[in-house]
């Protein structure tokens, strides 16, 4: 659910910034995941609130290298090398199990992600109806522009 | 004081209330973890409270992040804890010294509001700080081995506290290298 995710993103951003204010260091991925998961768990146990209707995939790059975590509405979190959530999740995961390797470069990873999306995609896939975010060893998170996505799509064809 | 892949941190041992000496074995350099030490000078009640708070924060950090704090991170933490009390500060001047993961020494001093003073050679604090600046400036040279570093820091400390009536009664010196820590007690003028 869209609005629920906005609340969680706001909370996570605030927590990450609070960490930075104290330690002058970017928050490690696992710490942010833990704190976000704690918020989600709170809403399963407090009175008068309902659990968040979203699962999150949190990806980041810190001193322990690149990491990917999935956080569920219950508040439990799992570490993944590759994962999928949402519609068509079982097909996507099966596809990833076959296609994922440990030593992929960033380019290969983007291609694999696009192919995974294409599997269950209804309609024509293009730079305007998918979003791709990447983070590399430079530790800077970027969302690709539609033009860049179209380039990758052309490579995949 | 910074040496070659090592650092040394030292303090005197007097605890006094103006002219009265209350203790001659007071410890004001504390270990946070194997490669990180903090010296706190100033009002002793604040020294003790700050030490307890910082130890608490580091232990919690260690439990959560499953690793020790880097010296620079710890310095930022101390700075923000001190600034929280901006309008009723802890009357303490910390001196932080640690070794990074790649055995690079890190030192930093702060005033009681948390303003960091980073240096590459030495940092000082306390009632004899002006004397200490002079002594360190003249005796320091870069890239000293642990043994020589100990001699230099010990001489700098003893000669400075001799000029200050509120400091003295000997000293303690910690010399920390990547593989060992040597603690030595100094006997100076016991007055």
Automatic annotation (TrEMBL), chain A:
Pfam families: Proteasome
Record keyword Cytoplasm present: no
Keyword Ribonucleoprotein carried by entry: no
Protein name: Proteasome subunit alpha type 2
Keyword list, A-Z: Proteasome
Family to which the UniProt record says this protein belongs: Belongs to the peptidase T1A family.
InterPro entries: Ntn_hydrolases_N, Proteasome_alpha, Proteasome_alpha-type, Proteasome_sua/b
Gene Ontology CC: proteasome core complex, alpha-subunit complex
GO biological-process terms attached to the record: proteolysis involved in protein catabolic process
SUPFAM superfamilies listed in its UniProt record: N-terminal nucleophile aminohydrolases (Ntn hydrolases)
Protein's organism: Ceratopteris richardii (Triangle waterfern)
Gene3D superfamilies per the UniProt record, alphabetical: Glutamine Phosphoribosylpyrophosphate, subunit 1, domain 1 (3.60.20.10)
Automatic annotation (TrEMBL), chain B:
Keywords: Cytoplasm, Nucleus, Proteasome
InterPro entries named among the record's database cross-references: Ntn_hydrolases_N, Proteasome_beta_3, Proteasome_sua/b, Proteasome_suB-type
Alphabetized SUPFAM superfamilies for the sequence: N-terminal nucleophile aminohydrolases (Ntn hydrolases)
A GO-annotated cellular component: cytoplasm
CDD domains linked to this entry: proteasome_beta_type_3
Function noted in UniProt: Non-catalytic component of the proteasome, a multicatalytic proteinase complex which is characterized by its ability to cleave peptides with Arg, Phe, Tyr, Leu, and Glu adjacent to the leaving group at neutral or slightly basic pH. The proteasome has an ATP-dependent proteolytic activity.
Protein name: Proteasome subunit beta
A Pfam cross-reference name: Proteasome
GO annotation terms (biological process): proteasome-mediated ubiquitin-dependent protein catabolic process
Domain of life: Eukaryota
Kinase found in the keyword field: no
PANTHER family reported for this sequence: METALLOPROTEASE TLDD (PTHR32194), PROTEASOME SUBUNIT BETA TYPE-3 (PTHR32194:SF10)
Subcellular localization, as worded in the UniProt entry: Nucleus
């Amino acid at each position: 659910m869209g609005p629920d995710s906005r609340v969680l993103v706001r909370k996570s951003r605030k927590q990450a910034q609070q960490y930075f204010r104290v330690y002058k260091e970017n928050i490690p991925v696992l710490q942010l995941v833990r704190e976000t998961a704690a918020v989600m768990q709170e809403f399963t146990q407090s009175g008068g609130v309902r659990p968040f209707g979203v699962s999150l995939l949190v990806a980041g790059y810190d001193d322990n290298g690149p990491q990917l975590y999935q956080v569920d509405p219950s508040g439990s979190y799992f570490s993944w090398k590759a994962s999928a959530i949402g519609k068509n999740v079982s097909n996507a995961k099966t596809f990833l199990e076959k296609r994922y390797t440990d030593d992929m470069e960033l380019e290969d990873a983007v291609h694999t992600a696009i192919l995974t999306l294409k599997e269950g995609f209804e309609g024509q896939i293009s730079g305007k109806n998918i979003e791709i975010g990447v983070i590399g060893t430079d530790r800077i998170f970027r969302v690709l522009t539609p033009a860049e996505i179209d380039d990758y799509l052309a490579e995949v064809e | 004081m910074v040496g070659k892949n090592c650092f040394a941190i030292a303090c005197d041992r007097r605890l006094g209330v103006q002219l009265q000496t209350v203790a001659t074995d007071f410890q004001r350099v504390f270990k946070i973890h194997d490669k990180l030490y903090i010296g706190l000078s100033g009002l002793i009640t604040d020294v003790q409270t700050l030490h307890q708070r910082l130890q608490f924060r580091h232990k919690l950090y260690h439990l959560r992040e499953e690793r020790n704090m880097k010296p620079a991170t710890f310095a930022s933490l101390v700075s923000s804890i001190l600034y929280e009390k901006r309008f009723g500060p802890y009357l303490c001047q910390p001196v932080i010294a640690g070794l990074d993961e790649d055995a690079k020494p890190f030192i930093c001093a702060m005033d009681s509001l948390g303003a960091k003073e980073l240096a590459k050679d030495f940092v000082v604090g306390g009632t004899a700080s002006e004397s200490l600046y002079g002594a360190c400036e003249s005796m320091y040279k870069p890239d000293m081995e642990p043994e020589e570093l100990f001699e230099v820091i010990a001489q700098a400390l003893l000669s400075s506290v001799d000029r200050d009536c509120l400091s003295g009664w000997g000293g303690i010196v910690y010399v920390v290298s990547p593989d060992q820590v040597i603690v030595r007690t100094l006997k100076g003028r016991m007055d």
